[in-house]
Write a structure and sequence with these properties.
single chain; 184 residues; alpha/beta; Rossmann fold; six-stranded mixed β-sheet; three-stranded antiparallel β-sheet; binds inosinic acid; binds magnesium ion
Length: 184
């Protein structure tokens, strides 16, 4: 009988995340001198990061509009599938708006780049990108986020919204995951 389970190695603690989110929002606000920012978040992985940053924006007196793009690039694997599927929710155009595109992690660059192109085509006044994690890998698409939380090595991580096959999004920290197969 084969029993699959996982080993976790915490890379970024809850406390470190909390501290960094505060700093990051300060950094963004000091650049965004405009009144109202539209955040467009790429689902699903960014939802925990989004929930933290929007409340930090509020604490610092910013007013936001929050919208979503639904992107999926992994299907039960730990290797990016290259051509992300985009399912657009009905959302107002970002034409003329100050937009911050938010995602959980930058890996190959396909997802952020595709979402950025979609928004650029709507002619926002300003379009900046922010990801929680940047993987230290050679990108397949040349894109650098304007803002990021942390850089990590090329490891598959979960928690703080990031999943493996739909699991582990609820973990309040970022952990490297390894699948262990035990034969009994
Ligand atoms: P990219 O298109 O290869 O840059 O991948 C970005 C997307 O893949 C992110 O929005 C994540 O949803 C997902 N992803 C990339 N690396 C990881 C990881 O280590 N853990 C979980 N999801 C990941
Ligand atoms: Mg994603």
């Amino acid at each position: 009988m084969t029993n699959d389970h996982f080993s976790m190695n915490i890379l970024i603690s809850e406390d470190n995340i909390r501290e960094r989110v505060k700093e990051l929002v300060e950094e963004i606000i000091s650049d965004f001198v405009y009144n109202e920012t539209t955040i467009v978040a790429a689902l699903k992985g960014s939802f925990v990061f989004l929930a933290d940053i929007i409340r930090e924006f509020h604490r610092k007196g910013s007013e936001l509009i929050v919208e979503f793009i639904d992107v999926s690039s992994y299907s039960g694997t730990t290797v990016s599938q290259g051509n992300p599927l985009i399912r657009e929710f009905k959302r107002p155009s970002v034409c003329g708006r100050n937009v911050l595109l938010v995602d959980d992690i930058l890996d190959t660059g396909h997802t952020l780049s595709k979402c950025k192109t979609i928004l650029e085509n709507e002619h926002p006044m300003v379009l900046k990108t922010c990801v929680f994690l940047v993987k230290d890998v050679k990108r397949l698409v040349d894109i650098t986020p304007d803002y990021f939380g942390f850089t990590i090595e090329d490891k598959f991580v979960v928690g703080y919204g990031l999943d493996y096959d739909g699991k582990f999004r609820e973990l309040p920290y970022i952990a490297e995951i390894e699948e262990i197969s035990t034969s009994i």
